[in-house]
Amino acid sequence: MNKITLKSPVDMHLHLRQGDMLNNIAHLSAKYFANAVIMPNTVPAIADLDALDIYKQDIIKSFKFDNMTPMMSLFFRNYSEAELIKAKDKIFGIKLYPQGATTNSDSGVDNLDEAETTFKIMEELQIPLLVHGEQADDFVLDREKNFLPVYEHLAKKYPKLKISMEHITTAKALELLDRYENLLATVTLQHLSITLDDVAGGLFNPHLFCKPIAKRPEDRDALLNAALSAHPKLMFGSDSAPHPRSSKECCGCAAGVFSAPIALAYLVDIFDKNNSLQNLQAFISDNAVKNYGFKLLNKEITLEKKDFIIPNQYSDVVPFMAGNTINWSYV
Ligand code: NCD
Ligand code: ZN
After folding, report:
1. Residue 146: CA atoms inside 13 Å, Cβ hemisphere, count?
2. pLDDT tens column, 196-221
3. How far, in Å, CA of 21 to CA of 3, rounded?
4. Which CATH superfamily is domain 11-261 in?
5. Which of 38, 207, 211, 215 most suits a substitution to test ligand 1, by most atoms within 8 Å of the C-beta?
6. Cα(208) to centroid of ligand 1, in Å?
7. pTM summary value
8. Pocket of ligand 1 (CB under 6 A)
């Protein structure tokens, strides 16, 4: 096949930031994606409906030529039933960050037991819980693995609550995904294609540094095989997380990989190289709609088999695999 048209691609996990960064990069998602779940770890975090309404308007204003449906999320805190009843129609879900686990998560949750009432209300109202699943202070390679019992506890205790294990990075997380009906998962482009060796095995590459950090080859391979075979509970979430070049190429490098404008081309390249193009539509859109039942914006993105050199920079942000050539380009 030399051409492929993807129908209404969805990014199930996207950071759009605020201010100049928002205005410089959000249109790059709108160009290629129909819908996207917008992360709330702004400064300050999006933790009430007034802030959410303003942020949504800012996002829509920042699109230049194309439209995209932002599916908003609230930053997890203890919400009252009245607050959540009001929020239900305005949000896709609520994103839980363990305190200190990643960028702008200082106001995250430090004691999950205190969050139980909110989980219960979310379950009743059918508001999905999106989780950054890492045990914040554990050894970096074990943070996701050590969080899996928390997912298991929540999945059992709230069987009607949809829980999305965000940006999974391990084979163990995939095993858990298959054990509980109410668990779903997203996976990023970088975790399907790189390992810790690409980040830090040779000279350190700050543009591949993100949370959770890329893991072992067998983890990457398990995730890739699940995506290639259109695992019905696994969905694409780019976790595209732009930071200015100066915050990446420095001591104290910020965590986050920026992939929004190149992700679809790169995914087509990977699926093609693994003879699995027929399963990309499910991974990039259909699974998400089946799992959550939301309305898609109509959009078609066509790609052709033609070399594409990934740009060195978009505005002041360096994308995933900058300067590398892949074999598929946007038409
Ligand atoms: C994200 C960011 O920069 O906001 N960083 C990252 O490394 N993935 C936050 C997150 O999703 O963890
Ligand atoms: Zn993220």
Report:
1. 13
2. 999 999 999 999 999 999 999 999 99
3. 33
4. Metal-dependent hydrolases (3.20.20.140)
5. 211
6. 12
7. 0.98
8. 15, 41, 102-103, 132, 210-211, 239, 241, 255-256
